[in-house]
Amino acid sequence: MKQKMKETKNSDIRETVADLNEDALFMDGPEYDSAVIGICYQFGRPPVVAYDKSKVLKILMKNSDMNLEAANEFWEYNQLGSGMGENTPVFIDKLFSP
Q: Would you list the domain boundaries of the chain?
């Protein structure tokens, strides 16, 4: 799967995710596609898009001229807090690098 996601980043992330879950939701704006780090699987739920939280915050800071605190507050309220059901993306806080 890791290899497939690497290839996908260079082609069409959305198409690959749709093959697994056609109802999976993405963040608004193609700039966030660069923050996709994979697909999240949970028992009894459909696969959903997984975003790297730190990359999302960097995108917010770059595109909106926010500092880290403002970006985190915006992310928490508007992006994390916008739960839209079982197809809502997840955000990963990476603790380790492989």
A: 2-92
